[in-house]
Amino acid sequence: VILIALITVLSGALHITSGTLVLTGRMTPAGANTTTAWIVIVVGTITLLIGAGLLFGARVARALTTIGLVSSLITAVLHIFAHPNSDSTTSISAGFIAGIGLILLYTKSANAHFANR
């Protein structure tokens, strides 16, 4: 579960980083604007916070982590398709990490961990 929490936190941090880079002009993907940058930052922040809450092992944290990772994955995919001519390395990384986190969140050992809470 600690690995899942770290992956979740990392996924959120990558979203926050990419949104911040767009806001500051250090990353300028085609078609990106302030609104999409803020959406990515908000999704990243939510993902980061619920990942931190996952460390406590509460079932609600698992549900919130699932929602956050799915949101993160959707945001990454939408960014890639919305800005096909830009460098999508950050979005691909964030989406990949979110996908791995979702897989790990529902392994047998994770199910057992949350069943005891």
Automatic annotation (TrEMBL):
Keywords: Membrane, Transmembrane, Transmembrane helix. Residues 2-86 form the DUF7144 domain. The keyword Disulfide bond does not apply. It holds the Pfam family DUF7144. InterPro entries: DUF7144 (IPR055568). The chain crosses the membrane at residues 35-56, 63-82, 88-107. This is DUF7144 domain-containing protein.
